Amino acid sequence: MTATTWTRKDLLGIQDLTAEEITFVLDTAAAFKQVGKRTIKKVPSLRGKTLVNLFIEPSTRTRTSFELAAKRLSADVINIAASASSITKGETLKDTALNLEALHADIIVIRHSAAGAPHFLAKHLKASVINAGDGAHEHPTQALLDAFTIREKKGHIAGLNVTILGDILYSRVARSNIWLLTKLGARVTLAGPSTLVPRVFEQFGCRVTYDIEEAIRDADVINLLRIQHERQCKTMFPSIGEYAAMFGLNKERFARTKPDALIMHPGPINRGVEIDSEVADCSRSVILEQVTNGLAVRMAVLFLCARGL
Amino acid sequence: MKPLQIKGGRVIDPANEIDEARDVFVCDGKIAAAPSASDDEVEVIDARGKIVVPGLIDMHAHLREPGRSDQETIETGARCAARGGLTSVVCMPNTSPTADNTSTIAFIKQRAAAVGCVNVFPTGAITKGLKGEELAPIGSLKRAGVVAITDDGSCIQNNDLMRHAVEYAKMFELPVLDHCQDYNLTANGVAHEGYWSAALGLRGWPAVGENVIIARNILLAELTDWCIHCQHVSSARSVELIREAKQRGVRISAEAAPHHFTLTDEYLKNYDSNFKMNPPLLTAHDRDALLAGLADGTIDCIAGDHAPHCTHEKEVEFDMAPFGIIGLETELSLAMELARKKVLTLPQLVEKFTVNPARLLQLDKGTLSPGADADITIIDPEQQWTYDVGQSASKSRNSPFHGWELRGKAVMTIVDGKIVWRDE
Predict the structure, then answer these.
(1) Which of A299, B177, B249, B356, by CA, is between 20 and 30 Å from B215?
(2) What is the ipTM, given to two decimal places?
């Protein structure tokens, strides 16, 4: 695949991508990663293009990453947060987006609490729409940066045992990772409380287990997810304390992982809950590298989707 | 009004166990046994190749008036019904104000009479404001002319209150229609809990949220020995529960909606809010169970749950969109598909739109017996047509069936001997 055979203007999810497209984004990101190491970190790829970060659901990490990625590609960037937008005055998402397009926005990066919101926008807009997380559905750039990090550290993805641990049901990161990793040939194990890791996920080509010891024992990569208080009803599990005791990656459990197992987390991390500080800060933890790689991956995604505009 | 002679059609009148080629005569708004005296005055309707049936009844529609006449009015809803071959529509009480008082019922009846298109039968609320807290004045509602009581759109969660509602309604011989939904189990749900809700990241709505209320209703119908009708039954387990209860003689009945027996949750994959309804679309397994339930009589009626919403209300994020679709114009054609697929015989199909709802609601309708009101639907079983929601008589456009190629269509709708719709 080459940049000319990439035809997508939108990145709505990993589920619709082919393995070839995924690999191509990762390869493109590798080139952009080099840009970040130069003294002058800016390239002119998107000069004259306008990118809008439309964040209907709050986010700091992802928004900052997209903003910086766009700026390094020389795009003009506008940030809109729900609390400061006309959405609080009753404007619909469709109207907000049409107004942005009337201002000649070329790329809209959307974060929204409702699954499918990016698809809804893509249907109504000519602009490029990038999904920066839609409800519990997908977070494609997170999965791409996770894959980029794994590939960089392990050299390949096919054949690896990847365990995703935590709140799977409400996690868009989990879903995007599942689609991506299975497409690239990794074996994915999901683990966590049974109420948050329903068996239906087996239908996506994953293994589901409620035995954390078994889930982490053979893992080459352990990806920890945050317990999302804001998305859960109170009936899902007893307490954060019990979660930490039953499923947290503490020192004892960490000692029983493979000696070269990578520890990943999409952030924000809750120390002492899903991960102990010693584990989060250890040499096998690549949590901050994920953040760095996110920049390169988002540059690649913006570059590829916006080049045809 | 000229007398009518509907000539040469296949007449299917399940109430009289008739299925044969014959003529139907109408005189003075009633079905007549023989042609009227003076031949030259009679309007002859050529029904060769058509099916002539008692006027179809939809026992579940939201006409939105009073309160939301931007979505639908009794007039536009009635015109939709006529185009869909329906001669009677039972309207739900979740209007504004709620139909929990006699004035609202009087208003609905007045509007329907003024429109003079199809019969509109109002239902009254079970509880005040559909809040599930205090009983509405059910006896007075009956006097005002409701044919049943229901909190449709809402479900009474308090089992004690539901029990007393049914006991009280029995005194007035009013059937109780129930929208079966446990709110705790379905909290925030927007899509059937299963493969597609998981894949699409939509909040799951488990089928058990319907099943537990169906089970509750079966037990209460048994306890009170009175009729509870389960509205828009959608899941396989619900069908099994009702089948088993009916075998024991429990006074429980059920309806199914065309969208539930036609579509599955796979249609949600593009997040099109025109596929968002309550209860949500379920799996192929559930759809097949509904078909089996229709075939063996577990499900008594087909009802569209016509639920108009403005385009701007539906054209939002899937989570935020209101539940419901319009259905009056497409339900007959979608049901005809069941006859073509041999799920139902034509008489069985007609039964579910005529004599069955009429019996459940004690309506003096649903038959072509001489002397009965001349409500008649003439169906062309082979006509192929494409549903264009832009041409709908409804004020709303929220149909998932826009652009669908359908086969079988009402070509004439007659109410009280008057032609209210003729397909040109």
Answers:
(1) B356
(2) 0.94
